[in-house]
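Give me structure tokens for this 57-residue protein.
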Amino acid sequence: MTAGKKAKNVAKTTKGKVKETTGKAVGNESLEAKGRSEQAMGDAKQAAQKAKDALKH
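Here you go.
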């Protein structure tokens, strides 16, 4: 996986975690759900990139 794509996916996952934590802290369920969603998207994209890289080798 290219370093740029990996960093982008990790950043999306981290951003999601921050949103989820902030949502929990302030009691905002919508923000918490958005954070979980972003984390899942980042994780899924990272997994897809890893699978793609595995097939290349």
